[in-house]
Amino acid sequence: MKIINLSDEPSIFQQYMKEIRSVDIQKDSLRFRRNLERMGELMAYEISKTLNYRPSKVKTPLGVADSLKIDEEIVISTILRAGIPFHNGFLNVFDFAENAFVSAYRKYKDALKFDIYIEYIASPKLDDKTLIITDPMLATGGSMDLAYEALLTKGQPGKVIFATIISSQPAIDYMMKKYPDDITLWTAAIDPGLNEHSYIVPGLGDAGDLAYGEKL
Question: What is this structure's pTM?
């Protein structure tokens, strides 16, 4: 698996990262959601540089101009619910893309131990398409792993991209062992570890709760 970390070079992405991590700024759920969306837009733009294009022509009021058009069928997928704003950022850039949605949730055995379950999936046919799976937090890698396996029931993509904002080092290690070289994982930060509840440290907390309010 190839890892691309956007924090390797300074950019406005780091400003947005600071804001979504800040215990003061992240209290504004509207701003938190919008920052996730903007980070999705920026990451989608960077990913767009790696895609295949074909020559195209476009008619203007004064003539015909040479242009380029993406030569891949793109499907953007996300994991409900925290992934929605990040997903929307990708969709703002790849506005022609198809979309897929997967729900994954933690079912706790006790205060600390849990299993991850997939409850819902809605996806177009994926055969030979470019599948981008977006999820802002890659904590253990379990949700991304199960979402990908669930999506494979809808066909075999030609290219697979995992996109996240903050990853833990344990999740990176897990994904590197699990997946082949032809999958690329994009992230914007790699944090050192997890706490006893498998939340990323220092991370930012619960992205879903920060975006949409605390759940029961």
Answer: 0.92
∠ CA 15-169-138, nearest 5°, is 65
List, for residues 84-122, the tens digit of each pLDDT value. 999 999 999 999 999 999 987 666 666 556 667 778 899
Q: Is the CB of residue 13 less than 8 Å from the CB of residue 39?
A: yes
Cβ pair 68, 56 in contact under 8 A: yes
Distance CA 53, CA 61 (A): 24
Domain boundaries, the chain: 2-50+75-193
Closest CA to 26 of 202, 216, 195, 198: 202
Query: Is-contact 75 124, C-beta < 8 A?
Result: yes
Tokens 């004064």 sit on residue: 62
Q: Which of 166, 189, 187, 185 is nearest to 177 (CA)?
A: 185
Class of domain 2-50+75-193: alpha beta
Joined together, the tokens standing for residue 132 give 């981008």
